[in-house]
Amino acid sequence: MSIMVNSSKTQTGRTKKGQVAVREDSGSIKACFPRSYCKKGQIKLATGISLVNGWEAKASLLQRRLQIELEDGKLDDGEGNFRLSRYQEILKDYGLRARSRAGKSATLTDSDQLPPKPELSTLEIWDVYCEYKKDRDLAETTYHHEFRGVYYRAIKQAIEAVGENNPLGVHNWLLENRNSKTVKEVLSQLSKAYRIAMKQKLVSHDPYEGMSEDIQIKRKPKVINQSDDIENDSDIFDRTKAYTWDEAQIILNYVQINCPHWYNYLKFKFLTGCRPGEAAGLWWTDVKWEHEKIVFDRSYDYRLGIHKPTKNEHARIFPMPKDGELWNLLKSIPQGDPKDTVFTSKSGKKISSHIFQTTWLGRDKSQKGIITELMKQGKLVKYLPPYNTRHSFINHQINVIGIAPHVVNDWCEHSEKVSKQCYRQTDTRITPGYGIPTTASQQSQQQSELDQLKEQLREQQEVINKLMQDRKS
């Protein structure tokens, strides 16, 4: 793995001396200098960095230092000879020792004065931390959206506003310019970044230690915005967050007439309870006609334009009975090659859930929204985001059809925490006589039990009446 960073550039946009790489080479970590640097050939030097977990962070910092030295002309004597003594001093400065061999192209020349060890900036610490996290436990989308996106921009803007060596100023600027949830997460991750750097002996202390602990997250009333991209299963059993099956049919009927291109995609979501990215990422190879099943094996992230594993990172199977509604829906779509996407946009490209959300909600006066128009017509009474087709399916299967919750969980795969919490709530609600929707057979059974109870009460009342009459006589 090469540790490469952007170097200083000339006004023409070209690097001054080329890039230094600090990478694994022949079982050890070496510093590799560009061929264009030395007229006698490429130089590869041992670094003394152990090839163990976490070596990348130290290699990245050494690479940055060597790049600066190279571009400033401090690693050669002006005649194409490598200043090996300077290189050894730099290694010593970082607590490293190695036997350096550079062949005929290397010549020992003395340095009158070693430049001071460059201080690591907060953003440099953040860069090292991001690479450390990426190689361990970060999903690619989280890495790009949060760590290299939201968090990075917040840190960068705060430092530009208050200065580099002002942690308290960064803290205060973030509180004034970002929501409390983001500030708490940024400061917490910054502290972790510095603690990792301390373990690598790259810095001496953590200036952000404890800064996130006293920040209270202010929860505001939820407002549905067009830009929302809600994918949260925490309220998936809340019936107020689901459309009834009759309401789902009203929505589908409207879509079939007014925006038919979205009909198959939307109906598929209602029939399976899958997440938007899972519907967009479905390939024809995932439709197992011979087994009458669908395999949800991946999700599509339209923002990064990549396929990734499902949220719980393993495939799940969904039943598709032959000649059933789901079977017939997919049979009505022209089938492509195995790795062709089942549902596409009007232009034949992969579906963007953001574009569909605009169709769902509408755009001011320029575009009617599916739900907003149905609400104007009085056919729906509430707005729910497109993600809540999932809520609608799950609630319908458990509370109306009567499917056991653990079976529905196998089909839709909520997180274990959500499943346990919400199933307890469902079990509590499903008690005799509380008006939970039931199937026809369950209604018949309940009516039979009610009739038996009435008959028992009638017989008991007759016994009581008779006893009362006996007492009077």
Characterize the structure shown.
Mean pLDDT is 77; it is low at 1-16, 100-117, 221-230 and 418-440. It is elongated and about 125 Å long. 45% of the residues lie in helices and 8% in strands. The chain has 16 helices and eleven strands. The longest helix is centred in the C-terminal third of the chain and has 33 residues, at 440-472. The protein folds into three domains: 2-107, no CATH class; 122-199; 239-429, Intergrase catalytic core (hpI Integrase, Chain A, Orthogonal Bundle), CATH 1.10.443.10. A four-stranded antiparallel beta sheet has the order 1-2-3-4, covered by helices on one side. It has a three-stranded antiparallel beta sheet with strand order 7-8-11. Strands 5-6 form a two-stranded parallel ribbon.
Number of helices: 16
Might you state the CATH topology name of the largest domain? Answer: hpI Integrase, Chain A
What does the main sheet amount to? 4 strands, antiparallel
Total of domains? 3
Strand content: 5-15%
CATH superfamily of the largest domain, please? Intergrase catalytic core
Helical residues, percent? 40-55%
* Secondary structure category: alpha+beta
Shape label? elongated
Low-confidence stretches: 1-16, 100-117, 221-230, 418-440
Mean pLDDT: 77
Query: What is the class of the largest domain in the CATH system?
Result: Mainly Alpha
Count of extended strands: 11
CATH architecture of the largest domain, by name, is Orthogonal Bundle
Order of helices and strands: EEEEHEHEHHHHHHHEEEEEHHHHHHH
Q: Taking strands numbered 1, 2, ... along the chain, how are they ordered across the largest sheet?
A: 1-2-3-4
Radius of gyration: 33 Å
Distance between the termini: 104 Å
